[in-house]
Amino acid sequence: MKKLTISLLLLFSLLWAESLEKKAEQTILKKTNTQVKVLELKDMGIKKLSIGVLEISGKQVPILVSNDGETILGVPEIFLSNNEEVLNTAKKTIADIENYNSRGKQQRLLESFKDRKDNEVFLTSTGKKTNQTTYIVTDPNCPYCRDEMGRIDSVLQTSNVVLILVGIIGHEDSEIKSANILEAKDRILKEKLPKKEQEAKILSMIKEVYFGNQKPNLNLTQNSYIYRNLAKENSKLVIESGVDAVPYKFSISK
Fold this sequence. Notes:
- By secondary structure, the protein is α+β, with helices and mostly antiparallel strands.
- 49% of the residues lie in helices and 20% in strands.
- It has seven helices and eight strands; from the N terminus they run αββββαββααβαααβ.
- It has helices spanning 2-32, 84-112, 143-149, 152-156, 174-189, 195-211, 222-240, and strands spanning 37-46, 49-56, 59-66, 72-74, 120-123, 132-138, 160-165, 248-253.
- Strands 1-2-3-4 form a four-stranded antiparallel β-sheet, with helices on both faces.
- It is elongated and about 70 Å long.
- The termini are far apart.
């Protein structure tokens, strides 16, 4: 009898959770006319409130849901509690969501640039041969991107590097500088130099754009328009992949 009672309680609990997820989805649909999926809801130790995972457009978002599914709140950036159970449940849920979104973002970015070698700059590791490649989405006018570029020699000691140059931080000439780099890269690759020297020259040119006083070339030729379009395409693909800040950096083994 005791085993039966426990089984029934577990069944009712599962049915309630599923029902609450559907109610939350219906509330969001009713109020925003947006079809979403509530993947899971967890009891977090606060009466009449559960923490949940909302999926929309391939991205996950943490939410708080009332026990009737009629009220849904976004999880605030500042989340404090003296209750360790509440805090740990919230922290784990948010961490899991961030990991999921980060993996999805990387996969979308890799897929977008899989057959677009003209859109990027590839630099071979200066250290031992490696199967690790570090991707860096970077804007020439971004101060944090300059900081990251200042560490590129260190990164190249242990990893190949792929630079995806964009113009997404609002400066008018960011896209032009990115286009100038892509055009200069192709010009250097046509020179009859050993690969190692070519890449050293390309990296030197990039550093000059990032750290020197070199002004972007505004005299657009027919070829320049091609590279301007490549830089514009980069910005579009990066944003569509879910990258909303630069520099964006991650490493893979292949």
